[in-house]
Specification:
Layout: E1 13-18, H1 41-53, E2 58-61, H2 72-75, H3 87-97, E3 102-108, H4 114-127, E4 132-137, H5 143-146, H6 157-175, E5 183-186, E6 191-193, E7 203-204, E8 209-210, E9 225-228, H7 233-242, E10 245-248, H8 253-266, E11 278-287, H9 291-303, H10 307-318, H11 342-353, H12 358-365, E12 372-376, H13 378-390, E13 396-399, H14 406-421, H15 434-438, H16 446-450
Parallel strand pairs: 1-2, 1-13, 2-3, 3-4, 4-9, 9-10, 10-11, 11-12, 11-13
Antiparallel strand pairs: 5-6, 7-8
Helix pairs in contact: 1-3, 3-4, 4-6, 6-7, 7-8, 10-12, 13-14
The structure holds flavin mononucleotide.
C-alpha cells in the first residue's frame, strides 16, 4: 500500500472495545455469551489474553457513573447498562494477567478531581509497566450521573468541555511533578530523591485548584496515552489540543475522512503534528467463512431481540415517543425529545429515507448502536477496512464485538490474521508500552525540558 504522506506509519492501530457480554442488545441471550460477564474477572482475563495472543494493540473499557435512566422494563432485559466493574480497578487486575497488551479505560472529568485521576492512572501505568491509556469523557448519560455527585443537573455541553480541557491540563501538570530521574534511592548519601527534581504545580484555574506535587513518581510512559471520544465542535477542539487517540462513530469513509482532516488540521495551533494522534472508528463485524454464514450470525442475534425491548430501544436511541407503536409500523412522524446529535440524526434520517419499520431498524442497529457495521468473509471485511485506512478515513479501528467471547473469536481468528497477511497490521509490536504499540513518542517532562 502506498503512503500518501510521511506522517503516518503504513500499519493500522487495532484495539477492541470490551463491553461485558458484548455490544449487541441481545448479546447476553446468545448461548455462547457469558451472562455474568460484567463482574466475572476470569471472563475478562480470558478475553484479554486472546487479544494479547493475537497481537492486538489494546483493549478499551468505557464507563458511566450511573445506571441509565431508561424504563426499568427495558433495563431489566438487557445486560450492558446496569452492573459492571469500575474499570480502573478492573485494569489493575488485568495488568497482572497480561504482559504487553495496552489497557485503556474511561474516567470522567465532570465528576472527579484531577488529583484523584492523576494518582490512579499514574499508579496503573507503573503497575502495568507502561500500558495504560485514559479515555477522557465529559459523561454522556445526562442528569442521572450528576445526581450521584450532589448535583441536580449536568453541566451544559460546552461547559463540560471547558472543564475537561482544564482538567486534563491539571492532570498532565500533576503527572510531571517528578522528573524522570528524581528518585536516587542512594543509601550512602542518604538521598531518597533529588529535591531539585520535585515540582509543585499550584494549579489555580476557573474550575479546579490543585497544589501538587503528586505522590506517585513519573510513570513509565511519561503520562498515560490520552484518548477522547467526542465529535462535536468542542469535542474536536479538545481532541486537537490533547488527545493522542480518538474514538469515533462514523458510518461512511467519507464522513470519517472529513472528521479526520478537520481534527488533524486543528492540531497545528496547539503546536502538535498529525502523527501525534491515532483516529479510530468503532466497528462491529459479522464475519463468517462464507457470506451466508456471516448473514446467519447477524440474523440469529437479531432473532433473540424481544420485540418490546426492540421498540423501547429505538425510542431511547431516537428520543421519539413510540407509545402505541407496533414493531411493524414505520417510525412515526413525531418530534424527538433528544438534542440533535450525529448518531441520533443519522438513525432518524436513515429510517425515514428507507421507510424502515421499527423492527427493521432495531435489527439493523442493535449490534453497533448506529455505528459502522462490516459484514462478510474475512477478506471482504479486510477489503473495507483497507479502503477506509488507505483513504485516510482513519488510522485504524476499534472493534466492538457483538457478543463476547464468541464474536471476539471471529475477530482474532478470522479478521486479524487477514489484516496481518496483507501487511496492514503488524504481527508483533516492536515495543512493550502502549505508546510504542501506537507509534507515539514519550513526552518529555516539562521541567526537565525547560532546563
Ligand atoms: C467509541 C466511543 C466510546 C465512548 N466511550 C464513552 C464512555 O466511556 N463514557 C462516556 O460518558 N461517553 C463515552 N463516549 C461518548 C463520547 O465521550 C461523547 O460524549 C459523545 O460521543 C458525544 O460527544 P459530542 O457531544 O462531542 O459529540 C464514547 C463515544 C465513542 C464513539
Amino acid at each position: 500500500m502506498s503512503k500518501k504522506n510521511d506522517t503516518r506509519d503504513d500499519q493500522m492501530t487495532v484495539g477492541v472495545f470490551f463491553k461485558n457480554t458484548g455490544h449487541h442488545i441481545a448479546s447476553w441471550l446468545h448461548p455462547k455469551a457469558q451472562p455474568d460477564a460484567g463482574i466475572n474477572l476470569q471472563h475478562y482475563i480470558d478475553c484479554a489474553q486472546k487479544c494479547e495472543k493475537a497481537g492486538l494493540d489494546f483493549i478499551f473499557f468505557a464507563d458511566s457513573v450511573a445506571v441509565r435512566d431508561t424504563p426499568r422494563e427495558l433495563l431489566s432485559q438487557v445486560s450492558q447498562f446496569t452492573a459492571y466493574f469500575e474499570p480502573i480497578t478492573l485494569l489493575s487486575a488485568l495488568s497482572m494477567a497480561t504482559e504487553r497488551l495496552g489497557l485503556v479505560c474511561t474516567a470522567t472529568t465532570s465528576f472527579s478531581e484531577p488529583y484523584n485521576i492523576a494518582r490512579m492512572y499514574a499508579s496503573l501505568d507503573h503497575i502495568s509497566k507502561g500500558r495504560i491509556g485514559w479515555n477522557v469523557v465529559t459523561s454522556g448519560l445526562g442528569d442521572v450521573e450528576a445526581q450521584n455527585y450532589g448535583l441536580t443537573t449536568h453541566y451544559e455541553h460546552d461547559e463540560r468541555y471547558d472543564r475537561a480541557q482544564e482538567f486534563v491540563e491539571c492532570v498532565l501538570g500533576l503527572l510531571d511533578s517528578w522528573e524522570d530521574d528524581a528518585f536516587l534511592y542512594d543509601r550512602e548519601a542518604s538521598r531518597f530523591f533529588d529535591p531539585e527534581k520535585l515540582h509543585e504545580l499550584n494549579h489555580d484555574g476557573k474550575f479546579f485548584k490543585s497544589r501538587g506535587p503528586l505522590n506517585v513518581p513519573r510513570s513509565p510512559q511519561g503520562h498515560p496515552v490520552i484518548f477522547q471520544a467526542g465529535s462535536s465542535n468542542a469535542g474536536r477542539e479538545s481532541a486537537a489540543r490533547f488527545a493522542e487517540g480518538v474514538f469515533t462513530g462514523y458510518l461512511t469513509p467519507e464522513s470519517s475522512a472529513d472528521h479526520y482532516k478537520d481534527v488533524k488540521s486543528r492540531m497545528k495551533k496547539y503546536g502538535r503534528t498529525p502523527d501525534q494522534m491515532r483516529i479510530l472508528p468503532g466497528c462491529t463485524i459479522f464475519c463468517g467463512t462464507t457470506e451466508a454464514e456471516a448473514k446467519e450470525k447477524e440474523e440469529y442475534l437479531a432473532s433473540l431481540i424481544n420485540p418490546d425491548v426492540g421498540v423501547q430501544y429505538i425510542a431511547t436511541m431516537t428520543g421519539i415517543d413510540l407509545e402505541g407503536c407496533s414493531p411493524d409500523d414505520e417510525l412515526p412522524d413525531r418530534e424527538s425529545v433528544r438534542a440533535s446529535e450525529g448518531t441520533r440524526d443519522n438513525i432518524i434520517a436513515q429510517a425515514r429515507q428507507e421507510k424502515m419499520t421499527i423492527r427493521q431498524l432495531y435489527m439493523r442497529l442493535a449490534g453497533s448502536h448506529g455505528k459502522m457495521t462490516m459484514r462478510g468473509t474475512p477478506s471482504q471485511i479486510a477489503d473495507q477496512m483497507q479502503d477506509w485506512f488507505s483513504n485516510y478515513s482513519c488510522d485504524g479501528f476499534i472493534f466492538q464485538p457483538s457478543y463476547m467471547p464468541g464474536d471476539l473469536d471471529d475477530i482474532v481468528e478470522l479478521v486479524v490474521p487477514e489484516l496481518q497477511n496483507r501487511g496492514l497490521f503488524a504481527e508483533e509490536s516492536n515495543g512493550t508500552t502502549l505508546r510504542e504499540h501506537l507509534g507515539l513518542e514519550r513526552p518529555a517532562n516539562r521541567y526537565a525540558a525547560a532546563t
